[in-house]
Records
---
Amino acid sequence: MGSLDANPAAAYAAFAAAADVDGFHPLNPDDVRSYLHKAVDFVYDYYKSVESLPVLPGVEPGYLHRLLQSAPPSSSAPFDIAMKELKDAVVPGMTHWASPNFFAFFPSTNSAAAIAGELIASAMNTVGFTWQASPAATELEVLALDWLAQLLKLPASFMTRTVAGGRGTGGGVILGTTSEAMLVTLVAARDAALRRSGSAGVAGLTRLTVYAADQTHSTFFKACRLAGFDPANIRSIPTGADTDYALDPAVLLAAMRADADAGLIPTYVCATVGTTSSNAVDPVGAVADVASTFSAWVHVDAAYAGSACICPEFRHHLDGVDRVDSISMSPHKWLMTCLDCTCLYVRDTHRLTGSLETNPEYLKNHASDSGEVTDLKDMQVGVGRRFRGLKLWMVMRTYGATKLQEHIRSDVAMAKMFEEFVRGDDRFEVVVPRNFALVCFRIKPRKFASEEEAERVNRELMERLNKTGKAYVAHTVIGGRFVLRFAVGSSLQEERHVRSAWELIKKTAAEIVGDGEDDRLMMMMRE
Amino acid sequence: MGSLDANPAAAYAAFAAAADVDGFHPLNPDDVRSYLHKAVDFVYDYYKSVESLPVLPGVEPGYLHRLLQSAPPSSSAPFDIAMKELKDAVVPGMTHWASPNFFAFFPSTNSAAAIAGELIASAMNTVGFTWQASPAATELEVLALDWLAQLLKLPASFMTRTVAGGRGTGGGVILGTTSEAMLVTLVAARDAALRRSGSAGVAGLTRLTVYAADQTHSTFFKACRLAGFDPANIRSIPTGADTDYALDPAVLLAAMRADADAGLIPTYVCATVGTTSSNAVDPVGAVADVASTFSAWVHVDAAYAGSACICPEFRHHLDGVDRVDSISMSPHKWLMTCLDCTCLYVRDTHRLTGSLETNPEYLKNHASDSGEVTDLKDMQVGVGRRFRGLKLWMVMRTYGATKLQEHIRSDVAMAKMFEEFVRGDDRFEVVVPRNFALVCFRIKPRKFASEEEAERVNRELMERLNKTGKAYVAHTVIGGRFVLRFAVGSSLQEERHVRSAWELIKKTAAEIVGDGEDDRLMMMMRE
């Protein structure tokens, strides 16, 4: 960070002399370029060194407040000061999602094209709430969504521009999170069900029911509550090992039937392609068929695994998507597009805009009045919105389908390699089949050991691993079993990182349960 | 954009030779640096030239789809290709919010420090849903919010860290939009009211009522519908010229009293400091006093004008904020922080997290269990979140209170200058008092002219102005009058731009209504 390390006083002095000559110009192009060059240098150094930083920092709550001043500075300072504090105080307390040794949660994949696109978007800083407020921002977002829909082989009914070149009723929007995608479609489905049932206002809300497998992300159940659904009417459908924790359409049907028979109105079903916990895949087509009996809205949450479906060998996981009402997937998870970027597609945009449209005087304009354009504010919670399409378009424009597929396949191959390591060591077991680049595994419990014992051993393994700073793995509980999640795909990751992590896991496990069967038995017996 | 313009074939050839040597590395530090340097050059050139670009582009709906290929590329391309298409096809269709000739809506202010901060955040690409998922990201966000609270002189009850250094119940979170701030507080207020009223589930929802002045942003009424409030129970309180279109506490009291008397439950009041239409300021303290009679939640939307309240001379607009439940303001509007950045403060975070908390197994960790840390996912709609605090912290760290205040004051001074221009020309009138940096004005209607005539003339003025590409002004309707909104503050704006815009307005008005009274009367009579 330049001269500051050597001589902060000098940096301040030079700065003070230069300041205030001609007022305050926060976007002076020379300052912008100078600050950005410093930021680029930081990013370069960060990517070069992140591998050697502890993935999970060993800081205590409140650490940063002890390092940085608690009151805002009253006067200005050279940008180097902020950069120095970033480096000295902030970076040591970061969990490094960009580290190639990050295997927790799902990776937040990224790329040079995405970061560059986001930089330009934040510099242009347009607010594309209506088409007129930034025609190119709206049209590039729509184009990027249509491109992605083509990569995913989504039916033309989800695209703004149909294959024939005309305008269908479908369309998409880029949102910040899957939760928002769920929320806005829940609201559209809710309003449609209320209308269908002849409800006066929201009086009929207590009769509406919603459904998802118990493996569905917790944010779905939260989104239902946000939209005002009655907590008693939010059905979490049990799953089990028999379906590898995917939603069983027969169980769904029984639940919906029972509700309908009781005078309730099945309104919405969420199916997940690649659950957060274990990457289970709900059968999209079968779920859609069940839901159609009740005219319920079907949403597919493919936040993580949707990206894989750009490869022909994974596309079958979306079979039946032509019969659902909406689907969302997040390129910020696995399509090398930095946060945040969740793509929502709906088959009938009017059902969405019918619930979300606003038309204040100060946003009225000829283009909106003409009905020829998409005003993206009417497909999201808020009004304001960044230039969201640019980075996603740049990723597809620069890397093309081939490289994007190569990237998915490379991650899956590394996960497969890890899975084989696990399977090849009889102290470990893979707990559920691997579908994508997530391996759920654990130290195998000894015979007749309780689940509590198995959990204690595996929790110990996880905590020891994470304390090394050389790997970060997260956990889940599947079917009552405490399981480690090994998610491959951080964008700087190479095969050697997966190999090193496995060596570390073996070594750490050996410290806990010994090198082989006998040692392990002895350890267990001593406990 | 480099060699591409001269010889795209050569760029492709060099690129093809370099590719595929060693797999695909989307975050290769050298590529990242190279792409970012190109992006920085673009940004520099853009800021240098944006003044000369038409603010509002003259493109037709669908223009971009005609310029860019409709199918995603199958193979990769040099980054220069994306940059060239950005420059040739996208930029000409942008509405340039960064232009110093942009006077529409509210400015999306920006700064070198903010853009650099956002760049670093998107490169680090952490997902700080829990404290553990990125301790520094969470703590820096909390610190930035506490700093801003101090600049705004918010009561300590809104800060995470109270003045005494202990931990209060208050706290904040950075969200994407004001709408989300409204939504999450509406949901918290809704759930509290349901509990208070002994409602079984959401059965009592039909009795809950919400209130805001008719000048409140339309997104408030949308957020109410998203949260499931009955459309019939969403009260838009009429305002008039007598209060300069601010909420009249007596009218609010009468409306709440009437609802309570009818057995309804007043649940939430939204007060605005600086309405979108005309910058009216609802009296925060008086509104809080009325609402407290009914135990209703009071939220202050200070999206735009909140930033001005860092200056002592504007702080009185927040008087009474110590008695409200929540306040949100958006540094992405007027505090030089690029999109998106909306700061929400609540007095009792537990009321918010009580409605928004989720606790899935895969996110459980010791820090969260200890209750010592803030998990920001529980104060927003979604789970995932960018490293949101960095850019806001960098803005305050680099510019300090003094420069931030200077920036507000400079904008207000320019708006005041414009206001004086308008007042000094008897063909024009200022329609409502100017509170901040927005001037609402129009061509004065001639005596006995209908509002339709006045609207026609002023609409003509707006459309002619915007077609020149040399200024972009938006409109609104206040008290039945069609009015032009002249919002000063785009970050590249200087006094000369305001002067030029006024010259253009005078010249264009003269084309429509003549240079003086006689000409104007004649023009009007001919119509």
Note: The radius of gyration of chain B is 26 Å.
---
Amino acid sequence: MSQGALDRLSLNQITTEQWNLKEAIEGCIRHEVPWISVWRHKIEEFGLAESARMIKDSGLKVSSLCRGGMFPAATASERQGRLEDNFRAVEEAAELGTDTLVLVCGPAPDRDIDQARKWVEEGIEKLVPFAEQHGVKLGIEPLHPMYAGDRSVVNTLGQANQMAEKYNPSQVGVVVDVFHVWWDPDLYNQITRATGKILGFHVSDWILPVPDIFKGRGMMGDGVIEINRIRQAVERAGYLGPIEVEIINQSIWDRPGDDVLTEVKQKFAEHV
Amino acid sequence: MSQGALDRLSLNQITTEQWNLKEAIEGCIRHEVPWISVWRHKIEEFGLAESARMIKDSGLKVSSLCRGGMFPAATASERQGRLEDNFRAVEEAAELGTDTLVLVCGPAPDRDIDQARKWVEEGIEKLVPFAEQHGVKLGIEPLHPMYAGDRSVVNTLGQANQMAEKYNPSQVGVVVDVFHVWWDPDLYNQITRATGKILGFHVSDWILPVPDIFKGRGMMGDGVIEINRIRQAVERAGYLGPIEVEIINQSIWDRPGDDVLTEVKQKFAEHV
């Protein structure tokens, strides 16, 4: 991607986990990053109203709120609790000025992965009217199959597409994260199938050896993912919105945030 | 699976990495495990002829040789070298008295995963006539997508089925390992599609948290995989052969092998 395209760059806040929301906002301003994706645990420190005010005052645009989801649970009352937490997430997204809530759909509470997948569909079904009232779209993000046991039972773009297709694109779509989908032999077919329904595009890289199951992502260009090829496919499928850099990696969190943003911009220009 | 079904139990030798081949054979005899799956690095210590003699004298049956594959490489001469190594693996399988060579197909030498997948298909195409002459079938084992970067670009049973369908089941089939495929939303369809083509069935479990990317497997019953459900599907697809227990886990390697085999038999009877 050319240097000029940095106007699509969004800092997903988990990339600079070492920064709180205020520091991340200031960092984006200093480095002329126009977009930010906010994580809910980062809002807690300042409260929702103050977080929303800081963002508004900064002029930053919010590409998404991360995250809703986590629908499956062992009992009906627990599932209701999860749903209510999703209502809060929708309200937070609206208040922060983004139209996209990313869904990390959650693992099974037991071994029954089929049932958990049904609970995900039920949860989304119940969440859609509330989200629509608030002008918030739900972006189903398939997670890499290595997270099927503890983070999400939605593990392929095909699955996410199937779930999203029950709704209008203004209600539910999919989020494509290269780290989660790069290995999929059906990836480019499924990106085409998602035309008009892609609500977000996330980049990082798959580095070898993978340093950690959760904190295992690398900077764009440092790994084996054909990031640029996937970006082009996503663009052909109609997605021209912000591109979030979402890198979960302890060694990146251990560096000064400004160094990280400098490298993010450089690697984004070269490899995305 | 009932206790009586232990006649299908096979010790995949990597489960007792702490044992050499002689110790593993003696362990199987002591614990009345009728099958063994041999790894090539374990043959080296004794040499092929002595290894084959030890197995023959023991009366153990060999469920498979692990492994051929690793087809993709950057240059034609390197790929030829990989192919020749596969010829040796076929000869070893035949000498050891097994009709099944498990293929771990290999990663891409660069970022081009599509090209690597083509090289896998080319490698198999060139290997089939040689294997057939030696009475050895090639079992394509899809590996979990978390190994797409460093072990295999064949990551779903659907992919393995598609590759295997070009051949007779006497030439090429698939190997179903629950650890690699349990998360797949299309799993049961693909097992049905593999009817008559399943050459092996491997069990372990997906434990949480995953202790390590490579050495991350648990004992059957200790994790989240619906092992028994998958076994039943594999049986409906016509596979009634040996079931290999293949657990790659440092903490299991740190225990006395006899303790491991005792637990393997118990967990196999309870959870497979």
Note: The first helix of chain A runs from residue 21 to 30.
